Amino acid sequence: MKKMLTKPVMAILIGSALLGGMASAHSESTGNAEADFRIAEMKKLGMNMGAIAKVAKGEMSYSDSLNDNAAQIAEIAANMPKLYPEGSGVEASRAKPEIWTQPDEFQKDIEDFQAAATQLVAAVKTGDQAMIGAALKETGGTCGACHKQFRKPKQ
Ligand code: HEC
Fold first, then answer.
1. CB distance 77 to ligand 1 below 6 Å
2. Domain parsing of the chain, residue ranges
């Protein structure tokens, strides 16, 4: 099971899900409170995924607080449909207009993410490093899938 934790795998995971946004995190407001809130929630996702990734990579040892990280991801996943009110795709936001013009496809990406987040919660509960790594990779894949389709490149 060590395979789950090889560098290329983690690099893909981190590259697609985390660094893509965190390296250039917004520091200023988009001018739209709903977009700002969405971005703040996304940053929380990034931080919680990062905490779990440290354990999956063996850089940190497992502790119970990892369950809080997983729970927060699942909570944001559950709330995700509410993060995209009509009109919040403002200029400074990286939310693509397709979020609102292709709602069915967007909804599917949300559901994939929610399903993966539920499994991540269960995997973290086991405390098993390999299982956590596998579930993290799965979840990171759903972050990346949505970003690829529905997030504008960095401005
Ligand atoms: C259903 C679609 C979707 C899913 C799932 C999703 N995101 Fe996002 N994410 C977006 C969109 C859209 C933006 C751009 C938001 C904006 O700028 O208004 C974004 C932005 C971000 C940002 C950049 C925030 C900033 O500083 O500008 C980060 C970091 C991020 N997401 C992390 C994650 C992580 C980690 C996951 C999975 C655990 C995830 N996202 C899941 C759609 C999604």
1. no
2. 2-22+33-150
Q: Is the CB of 142 under 6 A from ligand 1?
A: yes
Helix (H, G, I), strand (E, B) or coil at 87: coil
Residue 23 has pLDDT above 50, yes or no: no
What is the CA(40)–ligand 1 centre distance, in A? Answer: 9
Ligand 1: does its nearest atom lie under 6 Å from the Cβ of 76? no
- Identity of residue 86: E
What single-letter amino acid sits at 118?
A: T
In contact, 38 and 83? CB cutoff 8 Å: yes
Ligand 1 pocket, residue 57 CB under 6 Å:
no
Q: Domain 2-22+33-150 - what CATH class?
A: mainly alpha
* CA angle 19–146–124, rounded 5-degree value: 65
Q: Is the whole-model pTM more than 0.70?
A: yes
